[in-house]
Request: fold
Amino acid sequence: MYALVENNEVKKIITNPKSLVIGDVRYPAKIFQLWSEAELNAIGIYEVVTDSSNRKDEQYYINTDEQYTYANDEVTRSWGTATAKQLEDSLWTQEDSDNEDLPDDKEVGDVKVEGLKTQKKRIVKQQASGLLAPTDWYVVKANEVEGYTVPENITTFRSDVRAKSNEMESQIDACTTVDELKALYEYTRQEDGTQTRPLAKFPKEI
Reply:
């Protein structure tokens, strides 16, 4: 990625090298391959340096728009300070109702915007449901066929899935910051070469 600088200001971002006009001269796209950095700089073209120090995981943060600045013969692409997404749900309030902002299908106290905790717990529930679904027929059969009993290994597996689901939701609920929630999902390598994370994991499928 390159930038065209004129009068110490970034005027254009060039994502794909192409022919361009600078002043009264048209330069072919090949200059990006054939010219040295100094030659490109001499006509105001600089390769963009990316500074991602402020850019954060978009799953947990809202990043600012990227910005391009020119200083000390260098063009830098960067972002402002990221804003953490909300952990908890926000609710429709009486004030929303009084201002006639409350949708017709909502009531005061209903969820207005879901927080990260709700979103993450929904995923846990979906994963648990997906693990239980293949063995649901055992339970149905036990309820419908006299004398049939769900095998012990199936009962144990289903119990373990529910226990882990509840454990994960409790871990998620216990987080007080976005960084704490994010850390639950971060794997680290152990001395034996395995990868582990703080968040509990479901048992393997049968």
